[in-house]
C-alpha cells in the first residue's frame, strides 16, 4: 500500500509542459521539507544550531547551507526548508533538539508549492502583480519576504540576480503561475 | 496607494497591509470590573480627528506584525511608524504625543 | 500643395500613405497623421453631433483637450472603442472610424430636432424633469433623455484585447516632454538617478514639434528636440514613454499611467497588450504638463470651422495641413498673431484679426501688421453663420459703454480663436496641492506641494521659452537631488524666441449683454451655454460646485479642460465677486478617459479572483460533481448520477450516508496550529469554552466570539499535546480568525508563550461518515485502534493511513459515526481514492456540501454565517452550554453581560416544521405571529436554514425567532406571495436527539 501513494504537487498540470520563454522562464521547484519556526529570541540560536543554518537576524534575508535554507519571515518567524528531506524526520529531529525552548515548530511541507521565475525579464514580469521595487539595490540577492502577487499572498526570494523563487499556498499557486505565464506572453 | 514603512521590513505598498483601527486602546485587564458605560466606551468609542491620528496597521502580507502609524487624515501623509506596544511618540504639532 | 495638404511642411511621412475610413468613406492620410489632421487634410471639419442639441460639430483642438471630435474606432465589435478623441487617434492602414451621436447620418441628423426643444433642455433640466409627474417621466421624458444623453455607444461584444498592469519605481518621473519636461529630464538624467519621462503624444517634444522660428542652443526647436531625445535614449537610467498618459495621481507619489501600445498599429503583434497600465511609485515627480489654449465664448462659437488658433498652427506646422482657405482670427492674446503668421505661410488667407484688447502692441503685432494682415482692436465676434461649416463671421467694435456696435459680416471658412492659456494643473490638483489664483495671468497656478512634486514651465504659468527651459532644468536637478542624486553642474540653454506675453480673457466676450437670445457655448462637450450658467445663477446657485452640477458644465469626459475657466469667469462677472471667491472645482482622475481594460488588467474570467481548489477537486470534477463557490473555494456541491437533479442526488447521498457510509471533502476547513507552553491559557482566552482540562488526544467543539459578544466562528479543536492544539475554523472564517488571534497575541498578551501557524492548506481532510465508516477505514490504518473503546467520539489519534502520516479525528457533523482523516495535502487525492476504493464494497457514496448541510440541519448543528449573522450570541444560537462559566474572562465575555444581550425577547434558534410536511420554506423568509394582521406586519424572526429531509421524508427548517424557546409547541406563520404558510415551533433537532448514532 505505501508504495502506491505518490505526493502530488499543486502545479503538476502546468509543470508538465511550460512554454519556453527564456526571458522569463517558469519552472516548478523540487519538493522540500518545510517547517515554520516561531519563538522567543532565546530560542533562535538553538533553532539555528538544530537546523544547521544560523537563522538570519536581519529582516527579509535568507541563509543557505548544504541544501538547507532559513528564511526570515518576521521578527519571530522563520521558514526552515530542506530540499528532498522527509518532513517527519526533520520535524522529529528538530523537535527533539528544541525541547524545553520557548518556541513553536509546525510542519508546513505540503502547505505551499514553490516554483522559479528566471531570466533577464523576470523582475519585469513579477512586477505585473507584485508591487515591490525589485531593483537589485532594494531587493538584493539573498532577500526574501512575504508579499502579494495580484490577489494572492506569496513568499518571494531572490537566490540570484535573475532568479526569483515564489512560494504560494497550494490553492493559490495555479493562480499565481497562470498570471505570471500570461504576463510573460509579450516576451514569447 | 499609500507607502507605509513597516518598522520591521521598511517601506512597502499599502496592498501588503491591513488597517486595524485606532491605536492605543488597550483591552481592560479585568473587563468584568467595568460598568456597562465604560465597557461600551472601550468597545465602540473611537476618535475621528482631522489631523494626526494614531492607528494600527498589520503587515499582513509581509512580516505579519501589527504596528502603529501616525497619519495625517487631511493629507494622508504618514508622520511616523513604530512597533506595537510603544507609546505614541512626541511629535511637533501633536498634543496627543507621548501620552501613553 | 494638394487639397489641404502642404507639399513639404510638417512631420508626416509622405512616403507612407495610409488609407482609412470615416463613416464608411475611404480617405488617405500619411503616417504620422492623427485622424483629425488627416480629416482636415481632406477638407473634413464636420466630425460629430453635440451631446444635447445634436448640433454639427467640428475639430476644435489638436490634443487631448478636444471636446467635439469624439469618434468610435474599430472594424468589429470586439475591438470597438467609443469616445476616442480624433485629435489623439493615430491613423493606420485599414483604420475604421465613425462619428457618434447622429442618426441616420452626420449630415442629416433627426436628433437635431432637440434644437427645437432647447428651451426645455436648459440648465438643470434633469433635475426639473425629475420633479415632473412620474407618469410623464416614464412615458415622455425618459425616452427623450435616453436618446439624447450619452456620447458614443458601448460595444456589443466582449473586449478581445489584452491589457496588462505593471508596477514600477523610479527616482524622478517627468510628466510631459515639451521644453520644460525635456529640460527637466536632461538635468535629472545626468545625476544618474532612474528617470522616467512620459508623454501622451506619439512623438515627444510637446509644443516644440510645432515651432518653426525659435532656436535652442543654435538649433531649430525640432533639431534640438531630436538631439535631446537621442541623448536621453542613450542613457541606461532613462526610460522614455511616448503614447503614455499620466492620468491619475494617487497618495504618496503613486501615479497611474496608461501606455497605448497597439492602437496605432495596422497589424499588431498578438503577443502585445493593447494597453499597459503603469503603476509608478516615483520618489520625485516633475509635472511639465503644459497649458491649454482657452476658447472665447461668443454667439454660435460651436460651428465646424471654429478652431483654436494654436491648434490650427499645429495642424499647419506639424502635420502640413491647411485647416481652411480663408480665416478670421478672434483673439485676446499675442499667440494668435504668431499663429496668423504661420498659417499665412501655410497658404491660409487671413481676412482679419479681431482683437478683444483695445490696444494690442508688441513684436508679434508689428510683424503681423507688416505682413499686411488687417488688425481690428477692441473688436468682438457677435455671431457666425453656416450650417455644417462656418461661412461667415460678424464682427463689431466694442464701444465705450462696453457693448458692441453695429456688425460687419466677413466671409470665411475658418474662425480661429484664442483666449490665452490655462495651465494644466490637473495632476497637481489631484496630488492635493493647493491652487492659487494669479490675478495677472487670470489662472490658477500650483501653490505649495503636498506630495514630492515640482511643477515646471507652462503648467505653472511660465510661458517664455528661455524661462521654461531653465525652470524645467532647475526642477529636474532639484527633483534628482531630493531623490538623493547630486547634479554635476547646472544645464543652461541659449534661445532665440519672442515672448507671446501672458494676455488672455476669461468669461463671456461682450456680444450684446446678458439679455441676448444668442447662444454662446461655454462647454462644447456637454452643450452648456452662457445662458445656462446665467440661469443657474438667477435660480440661486452661487458656488461653482453647484453651478457645475446644475448646468453640467465641466462634467463631460473632458472634465471641462476648455470650459472651466470661462465658466468661472462668467460666474465671477455675474455675481460681481472675484474669481477665487467663486472657487474652483476639484480635478479628479483620470485626466483623460481611460479604458476599463487597463483597470481590469488580467483580472478577467477565471483569473478575476484566485480560484481555490482542494487536492481532491479534480477527482470530484472527473466524477461529474456540481460545484459551488464558498469564499474563494470551489466545493463539490453534489454528485449527480445520470438523470438526477440536485434534489434526487442529495436525497440519495443523504440516505447512503445515514444508511451505509459517505465520503466528503472537508479540506477547505480553516486550520490553525497553536503551539507553546501557554497554549491552553491562550485557548481559554480566545474561546468561550474551557480548555485546561481537555486531555491530549481529545477533541472539543469550540465557540469564538468577537469582543462585542457575538458569535464569530466555531469549529472542532484537537489537543495534540499539552502544548499543541489543532484548531479548525469555518471555511470562510479562517483568515479572520487567525488575524484576530494574532491581534490579541501580539498586542494584548505578548507575554504568552504561544505561537500560531496556519495549516489550512497543509492538510487535506477526508470526512468518512456513516454507520460503516469504521469498517472502511480499519484496514487502511496503521498504529491506531479505531474501536469504540480505544477511540471514542471526539478523540484524535496520530498514525498512518495508506502509508502516509495522518491526524485522524473521530468527529461527526452528520450525526453518524464519523471520522475526519487529515493527511498532508500532497497525498490527499491518493488517500481519498484509496478510501473510496475500500469503501465500494460497503456502498460508499461521495457527497457534497448540500448533503452536508441537510445532515447537519437534521441534527440541529448550526453553521456560522447561516444561523448567525454577527448579531447572534451563543445563547441565541443554543450554544449556552459551550460557555465556560467558571472562566474569569474570555474575548466577548463582558459584552454578554450587557443588558441587551440577556433580554428575554432576543431572537433564539428554534426548529420549524411546516404543518404541510411537503412544503419547504424559503431561507430568509420572515416569520410573523399572526398572518391576518395589517401590513406592515410585525416580523418576529426569519428562516435561517430549510431543506427537504429525505431521511425524515418531510421538510425541516431552522429559524431565529424572538423569544423562540418559549414558543416551542406554538404555531407561527411565514407569509409568502402565494399565501401564509403555517409552521410549528419545535426544538432545533430533528434526528437522533439522544446522539446514540455518533457514539456507535
Ligand atoms: Zn513587516
Can you describe this structure?
The complex is a heterotrimer of chains A (188), B (100) and C (1000). Chain A has helices at residues 12-15, 41-51, 87-97, 122-126, 173-183; strands at 25-28, 32-39, 62-65, 68-74, 77-83, 103-107, 112-118, 144-149, 152-160, 163-169. With 188 residues, chain A is of the alpha+beta class. Chain A folds into two domains: 12-30 and 111-187, Gyrase A, domain 2, CATH 3.30.1360; 32-107, 2-Layer Sandwich (Alpha-Beta Plaits). Chain A has a five-stranded antiparallel β-sheet. Chain A is globular. Chain B is mostly beta strands and 100 residues long. Chain B has one domain (1-22, 42-100): 2-Layer Sandwich (Folate-binding fold), CATH 3.30.2270.10. Chain B has one helix at residues 36-44, and strands spanning 3-6, 10-13, 18-22, 52-58, 66-72, 78-83. In chain B, strands 3-4-5-6 form a four-stranded antiparallel β-sheet, with no helix packed on it. In chain B, strands 1-2 form a two-stranded antiparallel sheet. Chain B is globular. In chain C, helix 11 (530-538) packs across helix 13. Chains in contact: A-B, A-C, B-C. The interface between A and C is large, with 56 and 54 residues. The structure holds zinc ion (ZN). Residues 6, 8-9, 59, 62-63, 65 of chain B line the site of zinc ion.
